[in-house]
DNA sequence: ATAGGTGCAAAAAATTTGCTTGGAT
DNA sequence: ATCCAAGCAAATTTTTTGCACCTAT
């Protein structure tokens, strides 16, 4: 059968393009997940990705979502994160070095960049005899008391995103 | 019954003392876990803690280990860590601020301290309108090629400890 | 005495996998 | 046509929990 506009319709997502570059077989499901990911500004977990995907096309199973994020992580397209909610969450790998601040009261995650940490991490790795491969920094913080934020639990609320 | 030398025998572990300070009921199992933890220089997961505990006294179940580390975390005696191996790992909370470097080839974890990060994290939190509650830094590195370390997988080997 | 801890096994929760069918190349 | 992907459900893996019994206080 012919595939109408097989590879250059208006709607090729950024992540789909990365998949193609890496020679991945593009099924409808992968295309869908790629689109959902490309449109996501936050750090969804698999359950959430599945929800967003199903909303667009129900012909996808959660097993496929698991298999796909795993594949994309292996291909360096996604990075797996752990913000403490018990579920792995995913972040696009090509957004440049950035870090996360988690609001311990609300669980919201805020991204930030700071070039100084990179240099510091590099230096420390070298001091210990390693070359820097990657590094992660998570800051847990509490919004300055503008109202009255009661002292919350030590363990942050299940992380959610700022969106 | 009398407890011979109830609270000042040679063998009260550091963590047991912290438990007592916080008014926890000290059972044989808790004492044992406290001792195992106090003697651990690394970052064991629950399975490993269980193994070490059973080796000293088999009258303990893994459910109790889970319940106990959870309790100790709530009491601020332990901190839960995630180094990517799929299992939670535990670190004594009172060792001062320190960070971890994970060897991506071997999975070994090395601790280090660096006061500059604390200041930086503080400053960043403030800039974003938060007060600093906690922060974590993990560096993933590869030992400098003294032999020939082939480029390994992106995901580190299941973290093990340096011990 | 009694509140709370423990063991055991079952339940949950998150993720992976075997197998058959379906679809991309 | 071939090989890999997807669906589904069962299996794994990690952690939690219900309940009857036991123990530190």
UniProtKB/TrEMBL annotation, chains A, B:
Gene3D superfamilies in alphabetical order: 3.30.1490.190, Winged helix-like DNA-binding domain superfamily/Winged helix DNA-binding domain (1.10.10.10)
Binding site residues for Fe cation: 135
Recorded GO CC terms: cytosol
Record's keyword annotation contains Iron: yes
Top-level taxon of origin: Bacteria
Cofactor(s) listed in the protein's UniProt record: Mn(2+); Fe(2+)
Gene Ontology MF terms: DNA-binding transcription factor activity; transcription cis-regulatory region binding; zinc ion binding
Gene Ontology biological process terms in this record: negative regulation of DNA-templated transcription; regulation of secondary metabolite biosynthetic process
Cofactor, free-text remark: Binds 1 Mn(2+) or Fe(2+) ion per subunit.
Primary location recorded for the protein, binned into one broad class: cytoplasm
Alphabetically ordered keywords of this record: Cytoplasm, DNA-binding, Iron, Metal-binding, Repressor, Transcription, Transcription regulation, Zinc
Presence of the UniProt keyword Nucleotide-binding in the record: no
Subcellular location, record wording: Cytoplasm
Region (Disordered): 143-163
Family statement: Belongs to the Fur family.
PANTHER family: FERRIC UPTAKE REGULATION PROTEIN (PTHR33202:SF2), ZINC UPTAKE REGULATION PROTEIN (PTHR33202)
Assembly with partners or alone: Homodimer.
Protein name: Ferric uptake regulation protein
């Amino acid at each position: 059968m012919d595939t109408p506009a097989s590879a250059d319709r208006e709607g090729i997502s950024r992540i789909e393009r990365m998949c193609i570059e890496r020679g991945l077989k593009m099924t409808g499901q992968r295309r869908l997940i790629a689109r959902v990911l490309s449109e996501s500004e936050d750090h969804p977990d698999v359950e959430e990705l599945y929800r967003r995907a199903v909303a667009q096309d129900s012909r996808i199973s959660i097993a496929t979502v698991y298999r796909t994020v795993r594949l994309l992580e292996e291909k360096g397209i996604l990075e797996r994160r752990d913000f403490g909610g018990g579920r792995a969450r995913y972040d696009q790998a090509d957004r440049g070095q950035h870090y996360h601040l988690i609001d311990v009261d609300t669980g919201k995650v805020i991204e930030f960049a700071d070039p100084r940490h990179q240099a510091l991490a590099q230096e420390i790795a070298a001091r210990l005899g390693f070359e820097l491969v990657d590094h992660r920094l998570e800051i847990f913080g509490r919004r300055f008391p503008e109202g009255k934020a009661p002292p919350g639990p030590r363990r942050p609320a299940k992380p959610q995103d700022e969106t």
